[in-house]
Amino acid sequence: MGLMQTRDSIVSYLNPLLTVAHPEVAVVYDNQSFDHNSPPPMFLEIRIEMSGGEQMDLGLNPNTRYRGMVFAVITVREGLGSRAALNVLDTVSSLLKYKVVDSVQFSAPQPSFERAPVS
Q1: The pTM is what?
Q2: Residue among 12, 29, 8, 25 nearest 90 (CA)
Q3: Would you tell me which CATH number, out of the four given (3.30.870.10, 3.40.30.10, 3.30.2000.20, 3.40.50.1400), belongs to the domain 3-105?
Q4: Exposed end of the chain (fewer CB within 10 Å): N or C?
Q5: DSSP element (H, E) containing 14
Q6: 48-77 tens-digit pLDDT
Q7: Hey, where are the domains in the chain?
């Protein structure tokens, strides 16, 4: 499976499930056009980044295994609270952890929490 096909498989899997689970949340993939100057109250940015590859076997036509990460960043307008954001991240985590989508194998989520700077 090529890199673009891998990305498309992940988006095709996630998008309908997130739309049903959280219709109130706008979802933006990679560098998709989005107006960050007037965002909705809550939005989720999904970034799919490839980080390397390796030959899996020997022979005339060897297979390649690619590695990458899926980043999910939720932004919530001040006053809506972190519970709503964590609920969306829990959904993303449950949709991806240990799943196989086409030939893409997901492993354990690695959560991190960053606070947006206050201006």
Answers
A1: 0.80
A2: 25
A3: 3.30.2000.20
A4: C
A5: helix 3-21
A6: 998 888 898 998 999 888 889 999 988 888
A7: 3-105
